[in-house]
Amino acid sequence: MTTADTIRALTDAYATARAASAAAQAAASAVLAPLYERDASDAEYTAARAAAGLPSAAVEAQIHRAMEHARSALASALRVAAKRTRRSFGDASDTAIVAAHMATL
User: Fold this and answer.
1) Which among 34, 46, 73, 84 is most buried, taking Cβ atoms within 10 Å?
2) What does the angle CA 73 – CA 65 – CA 44 come to, to the nearest 5 degrees?
3) How far is CA 55 from CA 14, 25, 61, 68, in A?
4) Between the CA atoms of 30, 100, 72 and 67, what dihedral angle is there, to the nearest 10 degrees?
5) What does the radius of gyration of the chain's CA atoms come to, in whole angstroms?
6) Who's near 49: CB < 8 A, 6+ residues apart?
């Protein structure tokens, strides 16, 4: 697998993970927003998630961590590719590197 193939595969994995993370966050926000406004208990959040068929907070956190892991892997591959062409991202964060890459697609 070439570097370009690796970057394409990691880009696809990141895009999929990002979409899953955004969907989980949007669904949870829609259901839980009224509870945020009144500082509900953890039990109320858990019950609201279950009633709406949402994943637990722990599962949602895993979804977000998977997206962060995919972003980190993609940023790492992009850094390696840049070094091969004598370019550098300097002190740029993984988020900034991946955002710039995704904007070129």
Assistant:
1) 73
2) 170
3) 20, 10, 10, 18
4) 20
5) 18
6) 28, 31, 32, 55, 56, 57
The tokens for 104 are 């070129």
The pLDDT tens digits for 12-50 are 999 999 999 999 999 999 999 999 888 899 999 999 999
User: What does the pLDDT read at residue 86?
Assistant: 84
Report the C-alpha gap between 79 and 94 in whole angstroms. 9
Whether residue 68 is predicted with pLDDT greater than 90 in this model: the reply is yes
Mean pLDDT for the chain?
Answer: 94
Helix (H, G, I), strand (E, B) or coil at 38: coil
Instruction: Region of 50 please: left (phi>0), alpha (psi -120 to 50) or beta.
Output: alpha
Tell the burial category of 57 from Cβ atoms under 10 Å away from its Cβ (0-12, 13-18, 19+): middle
